[in-house]
Amino acid sequence: MISMLKGLVDTIAEDYVVLDVNGVGYQAFCSRRTLSQMPSVGEATRLEIETHVREDHIHLYGFIDEMERDWFKLLTTVQGVGARVCLAILSVLGPDELVQAIAAQDKAAVARANGVGPKLAGRIVLELKDKVAKFSLGGAALADKKTAAKESTASTPAANIADDAVSALVNLGYGRSDAYTAVVKAAQAMGDAATVEALIPAALKELSQ
After folding, report:
1. What percent of the chain has pLDDT over 90?
2. Cβ atoms of 89 and 120 closer than 8 Å
């Protein structure tokens, strides 16, 4: 099983690169992100590789770094997401942007990829949300915290506070991912003082910068 290739760039095409490794050409399908970072033809480079073996073919998929390859493998765990769809998603969203989009449940951001409709985008962000939970508000500054009404019988989980603040910003016309990022920054700065009422103006200030 091939997991890495190091050689000279022989060909850069629309959706793949050919590496010359000691006189043998290896074709690896890549995202636009990876292709955009390829050196010129004839220069040396290294690709992380994911090998897919099927009855009728062996395909190599190449990635500029391990993080992109890890996301490729994670995306393929979602029903209906094949290798080509994964590369399409990784072409429009880098690893950091994917974390943000999934944590924010931003279906529209994922649906920007070719071949990804609203239904599939919704499935992706829903099924992967728990797998990137450590990057979300529920696992960051607001993890396991309550609102000022914690001691009352109607206490609200901090993650719900953040969700409410994000929803309010979306209703004001901001994109979900941008709203999520602003709420994260505001929540980290406010700590225990984070309530919906306090988060919204603080996040608006972040968005205006």
Report:
1. 53
2. no
Whole-number average pLDDT of the chain: 83
CATH code reported for the domain at 4-64:
2.40.50.140
- Structure tokens given for 37: 């970072």
Total Cβ atoms within 10 A of residue 32: 14
How is the chain split into domains, by residue range?
Answer: 4-64, 137-209
User: Residue 86 in contact with residue 115, Cβ under 8 Å?
Assistant: no
Looking at residue 61, what DSSP letter applies? Answer: E
User: Left if phi > 0, otherwise alpha if psi is -120 to 50, otherwise beta: which for 25?
Assistant: beta
pLDDT tens track for 76-131 = 999 999 999 999 999 999 988 898 889 888 999 999 999 999 999 999 999 998 88
Task: State the CB neighbour count (10 A cutoff) for residue 112.
Answer: 15
Percentage of residues in the chain having pLDDT higher than 70:
86
CA 159 – CA 131 distance, rounded (Å): 16
The predicted pLDDT at position 56 comes to 85
Q: Are 160 and 139 in contact, with CB atoms under 8 Å apart?
A: no
The Cα–Cα gap between 17 and 8 comes to: 10
Burial degree of 129 (CB within 10 A; 0-12, 13-18, 19+) = middle
Residue 110 CB-density burial (10 A; 0-12 exposed, 13-18 middle, 19+ buried) = buried
| Rounded CA separation 49/61 (Å) | 6
What the block records as the tokens of 160 is 């719900």
